[in-house]
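pls ignore typos typing on phone
acetylphosphate + seq
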Amino acid sequence: MEILVLNAGSSSQKSCLYSLKEDAIPLHPPAPLWEAQIDWTHHQGVAELKVKTINGVVFQEELNTQSRLETVEYMLQTLQQGETKVIDSLAEIDCVGHRVVHGGDKYHDSTLITKEVKDAIADFAKFAPVHNPANLEGIVAIEHILGEKVTQVAVFDTAFHAQMPEAAIVYPLPYEFYEHGIRRYGFHGISHQYVSQRAAQILDKDLTSLKLVTCHLGNGCSLAAVKNGYSIDTTMGFTPTAGLMMGTRSGDTDPGIIIDLLRRGHTGEQIDDIFNRRSGFLGLSGISADMRKIEEAIGQGNSRAKLAYDVYIHILRSFIGAMIATLEGVDAIVFTAGVGENAANVRADVCTSFAFLGLKIDEEKNNHRPVDRDISTPDSPIKVLVIHTQEDWAIAQECIRLTQLSTVPS
Ligand SMILES: Nc1ncnc2c1ncn2[C@@H]1O[C@H](COP(=O)(O)OP(=O)(O)O)[C@@H](O)[C@H]1O
Ligand SMILES: CC(=O)OP(=O)(O)O
Ligand SMILES: [Mg+2]
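k done
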């Protein structure tokens, strides 16, 4: 079974092809035959494409394009053409799984993509304006290339948080807002769920006995409080703008700022741009949304980059504290995604705040490269794990599950 996965984030489009001998789900994530990534963060109008195959072939190209759709189509051609070719024809693909960021209050589980599902994804774009349109573009690109008959599955970032207790979901606004779907949804659920399952494996404990704070720190950032395998709280909210400070998003601020901006004549579009695209690391530092560039600038003595870093750590620590309180304790803190997996200083600066609970990390293990490891000292009562998020593999597993369900005779 050939499964193609498209994972569109705010700054990148990641994709991979899994080839499975049987329809059974293997115990460990298999290596994808082909992996590709489009990065839009470098220059306006330039997409950086990187492709890697299981045989070690690497292909890299800069594309001058404004069209995300065209770029995705170009990326998919590398599956069947040139040195990165791994299949004879795209028609060999049995199923395509998509990460879909916002499923609203309609989708609590993965689903086969139909016209109705596409309409709903388009409708929820008003709540996730950076993400849902990119997710939909991926679905449309596949239809262009493989025709509308190909099986496509939507796996929602909101689904893992759908069962959170009502007190964690409801905003203290007039009750009618809740009745109209204005509530906390939470995101990065595919990642939070995957890393909590992986954490249980690494700790050699049953997930149903664990209290975990999972920290997904990428371009978008969020935490989840995972108790006995269930998300019971998370930092993102109605939209992925909420919670922690991020690459270009503000995270939580005072709603009074929005009221003030409106009174001073700013439009909704302008406010959206400020909070989603011109805030966070980019807005504060004036340099970049990318943690690597921020670290470089700090090294060169840039004070705004240092301020941006300090605000990021301050907010991150306080939200981790809040998640520990919600859990009434914690067995492990898990770091994942681009920043969480790579930025050893972020992990160290966060963890020192919890030394009063006995938490201690081993500096050498923290600075060590390979992921999926415990970086705490043996006597630390709270474990600290670095886990490579495998959203793509989690999506592929949902493709297997759903295609099997849909072929079971009724
Ligand atoms: N070696 C590194 N050191 C520090 N930060 C890194 C490193 N590699 C990647 N990052 C950070 O990870 C971020 C992207 O994370 P990722 O999870 O890929 O984001 P997304 O899926 O939201 O596009 C980048 O913005 C960058 O700041
Ligand atoms: C939901 C979200 O913020 O996703 P990403 O981190 O991919 O931008
Ligand atoms: Mg991501």
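The radius of gyration is 21 Å. Residues 9, 218, 337 surround magnesium ion (ligand 3) (CB under 6 Å). more later
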